[in-house]
Write a structure and sequence with these properties.
Elements lengths: L1 H18 L2 H24 L11 E6 L4 E3 L2 E3 L1 H10 L5 E4 L3 H10 L4 E5 L3 H5 L13 E4 L7 H41 L1 H16 L1 H29 L5 H25 L1 H7 L1 H72 L1 H16 L1 H15 L7 H39 L5 H30 L2 H23 L3 H30 L3 H42 L1 H71 L1 H21 L2 H8 L3 H9 L15 H24 L8 H6 L2 H29 L8 H26 L1 H17 L11 H6 L4 H14 L3 H41 L6
Parallel strand pairs: 1-4, 1-5
Antiparallel strand pairs: 2-3, 5-6
Amino acid sequence: MNKLKNVFYLYKLDWKRIFTNPIAAFLIIALMILPSLYAWFNIKALWDPYGNTSELPIAVYSADSGAEFEGTQIEIGDQVIDTLHDNTQLGWRFVDSKDELVEGVKSGEYYAGIYLPEDFSEDLISFTSGTIEKPTIDYYSNEKINAIAPKITSKGASSLQEEISQDFIETASSTLLKVFNEIGYDIDANLLSINKVKSMILDTDENLDTIDSYTKEIVSLHDKFPEIKDKIAKAEEFTDYIPEVDAMGEKLIALNDKMPTLKKEASIILTLQEKIPEIQNAGKQLSMIDDDFDDIASTMTDGIDTAKQGLQIIEQVQAALPEIEDLGNQAADFASATKDGAEQLQDALPSISSSVEVTIDAISQVATTTASLTNTINQALADNELTDDERTAISAVISDFQQNIQQQQTALDSLITFMNKIQEAGNNTDLQTIIDQLGNAKNLLGVLNNRLSSLDQLVQTGSIDDITAYLSQINAAAQDISNLLNGIDVASITNTIDDVLTKLITTITTAEDVLQKAQDIDFDTLLSSTKDVVSNAVSILEKYQKELPAIKQELHDADTMLNGHMDEIVAAINKGADLYNNELPIVEDKLGIAVDFLQNDWPTVKAEITSTMDMVDEKLPEVEKALDAAVDLINNDWPNIKSGIHKAADAIRKGESEVDLGEIIKLLKLDATEEAEFFKQPVDLETNEIYPIANNGSASTPFYTALCLWVGALLLSSVATTEYHLDKKDKQRFTKRETFVARMLTFLTMAIAQSLIVTLGNMFLLGVDVRNPVYSVFFALLVGLAFMMIVYVLAGLFGNLGKGIAIIILVLSISGGGGNYPIQVSGKFFQMINPLLPFTHAVNLLRESAGGIYWPNVTAPVIILVCIFLFFGIVGTIAYPYISEKSKKLSDVSKESHFFH
């Protein structure tokens, strides 16, 4: 909050200094207005550049001597001159000779000249004689006078050429169409008969190949007729097999009746498919047993050996039993002594607890001591460099810290050993959680120790950035240790040890009772019975051991059979299930269809076969006679008929490829006057204006507004300094970042003023056509703020170099920003940089408010300009304290030339 107060204090101080100095106030107001003048003058100059083309002088001279056509004198050149006298689109100047015209264009008196040669009319009507000569209009243009004028004058010459062409087309077409009208009505009277004959010939010709194939089939049929008669005779024998077909049909019907039972029995395959995972698992288990069988056999052998050793031990114990009884008496004395020691240790628990607490607290301070170490190193890194002495000193500090960690690890080892012994004495795991936590703490200390070694190596050989980044990892590791140890409750350790000792004392007391009971046990009898049991177990195990090879072979064979064919078994089950799910229903459906046919359709078919064979026997002689006649026609007359049809069709197609008779008749019968007018101007142009703009000045306003805002930012950065002047006392009070942001606010305030002045002046001084005036002001404010932020940060961070970069961006923006001309007509380089220029998005945004907003086109430029504003503002604010000194040194070097300030 204090930093914001400082920034706004400096911001107000800026404006107080400006308005207490008359010259500074005058300059600041001038800098607000001057960029707007740049935009206003350009917009006004381009307000209506094509409205005064009548002042462009274009020389015209016609040397046309005319021509005679059917007794009528035609003077096209004179008609053109008369037409131009009434034309005010351009400044026509009628000269007296071709030399005067050419000389005037050369001298620059005329922007262009149009000359009609002597044979212009004669060439124009040359088509009537059969020898066509296209007339020529000579056009002269002086392109060095102006870049745009030649385009306008060229358009005038083209318009003149078009007008002459249209008049010629209208006259010629009108005459021709009157003659064509009469011809069209004569042809139309006989069109029906012509089309009918034409269609018949063409259809026949198009199907000649098909007809030819039919003739071949007829000949082939004729050749095969004896064979067909033999087959028909055999077909008649089919009627003898009808009883057998009936019998087969009855079997199919019986099978169809049993299909539900078959489906039910086959459904077992689906149950088997569901058991596939269990089958596969059984295979895995069988394989596992097979693989581990040698281990099982080995384990059984070991068991037998162990049992035999047990027998030996039992025999040894029986031999040593008298000594054991004496040892039991001694154990009772030892238990009594141990009980006394445990009670004494329980009394010493407070001091033990205090020692544990001190040890854990000391080690848990590692985060604090590590933070102190990293702060020391950070202080050495504050100037972004390390001397050799600093590196040596830091290395010594790290070494001492590592020795301290090793001592802490030793203390933890002692504490863990003590708790393990307490736990072992109590024969329980009550302290295991705390022991694990202490073990983890020891391991984390080891991790911290290793990272300190890596840090030492970075200090000696690494970069400042690497060291700074690694310090955070050191602190994180130390904090992990601290968090772990702080989670240990020392009081619970004391209580747990107390419980362990209490249980131990209880256990010893119980042990004394057990020893007394043990002394009452008849161990000799117990050992003898145990020996008998173990001997029996050995006998049984040795019996099974002899069977192990046979069992192993059987297991292996089962494993090989099941797992060796598992894929085939699974595939077969899945295939069976697939057949049941997919194929069996199809078979069932087809069987049903077959049964339906046998029951419903077969009796009718059987009757038809019988009647058909009777009819074939009756009609066969007539068919044979017809085939003989057809083959005779095909062999003798068909080639000549086919050739004649083909020639006639080719002639018709050739005519159709050149002209469509129906369309020609329709065209010839149309009204000659209307058709002549159509040929003169076949297309009407209907213009639909989307987002209309009143004039060229209004259309150019977005470009020049954006340009003036960038120029305004450049002017301000050139006249005003980005450095904030403070007294020595105030320099200690305010940071560089605060002065940078305060001066940034002053520049941005100027951007707001420049944006408001230019946009309001566009609307109220020039009367620019703006469809969305409110958004026009808002968009201009956003553009002005974004441009000012870019230029200010570049100038603030890099001085004159940054201003140079801003000028380069301006130069590129004029060519590559797509302001006056579509970017698509520029070079590939400018098309490539177009989306990268802030100017592009600024002009696109301002155009929306000028012509009418299409909101999808507004979103992207607004987001981009806001992001540019925030990016440069944030980066400049963060980087200024680090870059300002270096850029100042660079500026001082340039000042040594005594040319740059």
